[in-house]
Amino acid sequence: MNLLLEGVPRSALILLALFFAALIAAPMVLNDYLIVVLITILYFAYAGQCWNIMMGFAGQLSLGHALYIGLGAYVTAALYVKFGVSPWIGLLPALVIAGAVGAVIGFLAFRFGVSGVYFAILTIAFAEFARIGFDHFPWVGGAAGYFLPVANYTQNDFFNLRGSQTMFYYILLAMTVLAFVLCHLLLRSRAGYYWLAIRESPEAAEALGINIFRYKMYAVVLSAALTSLGGVIFAFFYNNLFPEQVFHISRSIELILGPIIGGIGTLFGPVVGAFLLTGLAEGLREVMLRLGIDLPGVKQVFYGICLLCVVMFLPEGVWPPLKKKLGLDRDTGKKGS
What we know:
Elements: H1 2-5, H2 10-29, H3 32-57, H4 66-83, H5 87-111, H6 117-135, E1 146-147, H7 165-187, H8 190-200, H9 202-207, H10 212-238, E2 240-241, H11 243-246, H12 249-262, H13 269-290, H14 298-313, H15 319-325
Antiparallel strand pairs: 1-2
Helix pairs in contact: 3-7, 3-10, 3-12, 3-13, 4-5, 4-6, 4-10, 5-10, 8-10, 12-13, 13-14
């Protein structure tokens, strides 16, 4: 507990507690549509934190993170539909497979000196390989899609992830909070310090005796495995999977926009970015529907405008200046909150 709260200002703890209490109470006062919006926000907040471990902490840019979402989704969905395996049990092989694929990508990149934009291209290539492969894999539906059975339940079946929107909301809320706590602990661990050293200057980190290959691998494998858990929720909430949808690069871009907008390498950045992007995008969509305006691709245009504004006016993201405005920057710990 001391490690968890170390260096965190009291004002930040109070604000965080109020925010968490509001999220817990939200389903009691919001309608079904707004609950779905919050589920989407929490999904991107969770996935953004997982990606932030690789890029924000260790400085390894992945543009193919939808690969791990898809692996988690397809593995658990197939085990559930074909063999009746609970997604919580099927999650274990999904974590292993996603982590192993991440390890393969990391090994190929770091052992042969692939870094920077070339590493990003490698991650895109693997995601595209998966998309094409699952498109031609009839055991899980191929290009025609894979569908999970949907039934009306009088009560939530947590064990099989069959139930109401509220159940999925609280599961995602718990996942997002646990990911936040894990990232907080990682930043203040030896691995976290090593990652930041590698991110800032790999040459200097290596000169200090840090095994940069090992710690880069830790970041990639951990990020990949945790991201696959988001794919499990994606599969069992939407109940249908299409390779073109799940593995497409646009899905990866959606995952990373939250941390970029909020602030790469910060704890609150992915959460703030997810709330801003998804909340404003859904608000814009609702306004346009009320006005009777139907413009295809407006959501993508909105994301592009947000990204452009952040790059031009807030290169560190929204959270760092917001933290100063709220008086939460008097942190005696290290940078990254």
